[in-house]
Each structure stands twice: as structure tokens, then as C-alpha cells.
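Duplicate of earlier report; Transcriptional regulator AraC family input re-posted below.
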Amino acid sequence: MTSKSTAPFNIAPELVILDTLPDNLRKRFKVALKLMHENLFDSLSWEMVAKKSAISPFHFHRQFSELFQETPGRYLSRVRLQHAVHLLLTEPQKRVTDIAHLCGYSSSQVLAKVLKRELGVSANELRPAGSNSTPLQTFKHLEKLAHPRHGDSFEKHLAKSMPAELVWYAKRGVKVIEVPDFDWDKAYSQFGDKSLQLLTLTPIGDIDRCWDEIAMMIADWNAPIQDQNESVAEGYYLCCEVFVLNDTGYVTAIESLFERARGLGFKVDTSKALVEMMLSPHCDEDGGASFSFQLPVQS
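Output:
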């Protein structure tokens, strides 16, 4: 069901930066990033991260700021907020106070101040965006949490070089399944490796509607023929495979695929659906996941 066998294109700024470092520095900063991402609820300060990474706070602050173009404190704050925004958008039943604590904030009031300062919204204003805003409106929030870079976000800079391939697909049979409030993280938690057999179909004609009005389908592309009850339309698809660490990288890749189609002179086929598939789960040492995106076009 995918178009390529090569490694997915990396839209994870941190990992791209790490790849430029000598082995000794790469290992230390990899430890630091792992601590920052996996221990948000511990409210670790960047000084504590430096100590646990065997780097003096002075050198850690200087080197981190030079490499990542933001201070370690600012980076840690941005990662916390990324995770909080993800939970606010995808976990409607979870209390704001619980989300705040999970992300390392001392209270919901502290989270509220950070949200207002960085995104200009409150938690109560942001939470419904997961259902009553459009994909573009959601992307505008996530874009503010992208990795900083001169002139543009680092994710957008990387996505400009993202390979895309025009592929013809015959009609593909699938079995539509019910997964309330679908999210790839939830899917992997619920189905494990079987989530790699899932795809989502988002009608291009619905893309400007609010999330609740989009007739997105979740389907099993590996279901036996006798169980298949829907199909992915045949035709040309502009395809890419990417590795991302967070929601910002995910939506940047999709937006860039649309831009690539326009740049190549393709017209997006509004009668068909955008196909999204997870290629590798959120369980590798880098904490990210790989996805395939297939955009229907008229050649």
C-alpha cells in the first residue's frame, strides 16, 4: 500500500541537527533531548538536564543555543506546550489540571498563562478546536510551536526538500472500522502493531470544513477480501514518506505535499481522499514515527 522502500524523509529538526555533530557531542545531546521529551511530568529544569547529560550548565546552555537556535529553557518550554496542546486537542475527557501536571506545569493556571502568551488562547478556547475548527485553523496553532529558524520554521525548511513521487494506484479494497476520536497515538495504544494496517481517508472536498463535519474514514487495508466494504479510488497520487517527532512535523509534511502538487502543476482531485498511513510506530529510540501521505491529483 505504500509507494517506496527507501528510508522516510526526516522532518525532525532535532535529529537533523544531531546528525551534524561529532559522536561524543551527539551522544550527550541525544541523552539531553531524551530526558526533555520523556520526563515532562518531572518538571526537570534545563540545568538538571545538563547535569544528567554529563555537561556543565554553562557549556550546555551555550552549545545548545548555538545548535538549536533557542535556549534550552525555551526549547523545554516549547516541548511542554506542544505536548499540552496535543492532549487538549485529542483528549477531550482529560481534565485541564491533569494535562498541566502531565506536561510539567505546576497548575492549570500556569498552563493557561503559557497558552495565552504563546498562542493567544485559553485552554477552554483551544480544546474545542479539535472538533469545531478547520484543519488550517488547527495548523496555525501548531505552526506557532514549530522549531525556530531564521526566516521560517525549521520544519518548513526541511519539508522544502521532501521527496515526492507520482504513483498510479489501482482501486484498493479496505474494511472501514469505527475508532472514536481517532488519533495515531491512540490507535497504536489500542491496536499495537496492527495499527500499521490502518489508513485514514480524508475527502479533499471536506478539507475546508470543521473537523466534526469532515467525513474521515478509518480503514484496515489488510482485511480479507470478503470483509472489505469500501475502497480507495484508483488514480494518480503524489506520495511522500516522512519521519516526524510531533504534530507540527506531521501537518507541515501534509501542507508541503499540497504545495508540492501546486508547484509541479498538478490539480488536486477534489473527488477523492487524502490517504494517511503509519509506517512505523512511536516506539523507536528517537520517539518519533514514520508516515505515508498520498494526495490524489489529476495529471
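The chain has 13 helices and ten strands.

Merging into the original ticket.
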